[in-house]
Amino acid sequence: MSTHARPLADWLSEASDDDLRRLFTARRVRPDVGWQDFFDAAESLLDPTSLSKVLPSLTAAEAKALIDAASGVGAGVQQESLTALALLRADGAPYPPVTAALAGRSVPDLPADQPTAVPSSETASAHAAERAFTTVAVLADLLLVARENPFSLLTGGGVNAGEKRQLGEAGVPVEIVDTLVSIALESGLAVAADRRLRSSQSAEAWLRSSAVERWSVLATSFRDALPRGVRSPDGGWTPPQSWSDAHPWDPTWPDRARVLHEAARLLGLIAEDGSEPEWAVGLRTGGDADARALVRLLPAEVDRIFLQNDLTAIAPGPLEPALDVRLRTIAARESAAQASSYRFTTESVAHAFVAGETEQSILEFLGSLSLTGIPQPLGYLIAQTAQRHGLVRVFTDEETGRTRIESTDSHLIQAMAVDQSLRPLALAVHVGSLTTRVSRETVYWALTDARYPATLVGADGALLVRERHPAAPATLPDLDTLDLTPLITRLRSHQGPDADAAWLDRELEAAVRAKSVLQVTVGMPDGSTRELLLEATGMGGGRLRGRDRAADVERTLPVSSILAATIVAP
Length: 570
Hints:
Elements: H1 5-14, H2 17-26, H3 38-45, H4 48-54, H5 60-70, H6 79-84, H7 96-101, H8 122-148, E1 151-152, H9 161-169, H10 177-186, E2 190-193, E3 196-199, H11 201-207, H12 211-224, H13 253-266, H14 281-284, H15 292-295, E4 306-307, E5 312-315, H16 321-327, E6 332-335, E7 340-343, H17 346-354, H18 359-369, H19 376-388, E8 392-396, E9 403-407, H20 410-418, E10 428-430, E11 433-436, H21 440-449, E12 454-457, E13 463-464, H22 485-493, H23 499-514, E14 517-523, E15 529-540, E16 543-548, E17 553-558, E18 562-569
Parallel strand pairs: 8-12
Antiparallel strand pairs: 1-3, 2-3, 4-5, 5-7, 6-7, 8-9, 9-11, 10-11, 12-13, 14-15, 14-18, 15-16, 16-17
Helix pairs in contact: 1-3, 8-10, 8-12, 10-13, 17-19
């Protein structure tokens, strides 16, 4: 039992619910923590393990102020924030466990004046705008890949080398993959679950937004997710030159600062020479994103394409995102530049049918885009693929509950029955069809992967459209969203009127468990007091039992008569 916890327990009991909620959130306290009263909370918050977690989160200014407070200089303007973190007492001095946790820690000298932002030149702004445009486009490519095939993440949150190679083949620069993943997660466009990255539901609307709207979402989310150490009082950010020293006691901060700086550079918020483009000023000062200056430097988007006889499509400029996303469900993009090219194949058109397109919808869409009409070879390809699509029907047999595969083409049934790639399905021949115990969705996707023209059919015979990896809700993991009200209510319910008696009971119980020697002050009936050196051995029925070391006798003292108790030795 730490006697240093008593002042903090008193402060906690007097704090408002909002103050407690802010403290517990900042200290990463979970709602299901096993605290029963404010004494438990105070002891836990001053535990060395808990302190080792909160000290790295301190900003450079807070760390310097805490060091100053421990040396007797005072915390200055940071006293209020450090008190709110349960690191300083009300008188401005650190709790003794905090002082002990500061041993060996130091803070580099802070500059007297913060560097000021230097406006970017016209050339630097142009380069930053180009980089921002490219980043937005590449991040869209990454999300489209994750939508079709969620990829694995390493324990630390990075993408493994194999997945990076696949992303590289899809046109995503390998060297910036981890930074792009960080941007996507912070903006809620991607979700990491079970160590896999997948696009979120909000990504669907983002992918179909204009390049400027995409950028505004990313830049604003980046600003809002910045750690405290690099946030300015007005809600923006401090000069990027100072970011490397923002959290001096966090061993992971140097790597984190590099990622943040790289993300700001990729988003065009920092120019290559460290200067600040015009469109970053509003965000830096805590305002809304103003992309008017950025728009002037971005290439104009187009809404028309050239369809060619060799089954390719050429966009004479950056295709509008909504059109690009839909076109890429029908054709595979071959190159991405100012003029992008796409290629139609049997597989790509079949993919469109799986995604819910029909022959008519594809022809109408391409017809509305094409400056050259629909070439005959492309029309034949779409028609032939449409004829094959649906030849294999996958549904659940209501009588047996098994998944059933039927087709009007007996050759397809025979081919599936002996296909080695489908052996895990354990397909069995049944009256001109195939059956299996495997779920219909699993069977459907296995057949699709094996390039059979499969469709999923419901109980009413209607065709069903299924997404292989449905978009997950956007979740931004943050303890700020946790409901701490039940915890605070529980602590309040154990807040009795006599805190001194409750604290004494805890001290005596802890001394008995540790078999400690206590210096006990006992109130006598005549109003005098007596000091006893007692080796605590038990407690119950409102009485403390122990051996009096001076008289070498066993004594039993009413707890109500004990005025004070101090641990002398365990």
